Amino acid sequence: MATKLELKSYRADTHNNWCPGCGDFGILAAMQMALFQLKIEPHRVAVFSGIGCSGKTPHYVNTYGFHTLHGRVLPTATGAKIANKDLTVIAVGGDGDGYGIGSGYFVNSGRRNLDFTYLVFNNGVYGLTKGQASPTLAKGIQTKSLPDPTILEGINPIALAVGAGYTFIARGYALDVRYLANLIAQAISHRGSSFVDILQTCPTYNDLYTKDWFEEGNEGQPRLYKLENTGYDPVVHDPNDADELIAKKVQAVGKSYEWGEQIPIGVYYKVDRPTFEDEMASRRPSLANTSLLNVDLNDRDISPLLDSLR
Ligand code: SF4
Ligand code: MG
Question: Does residue 60 contact residue 121 with C-beta atoms inside 8 Å?
Answer without folding.
Answer: no
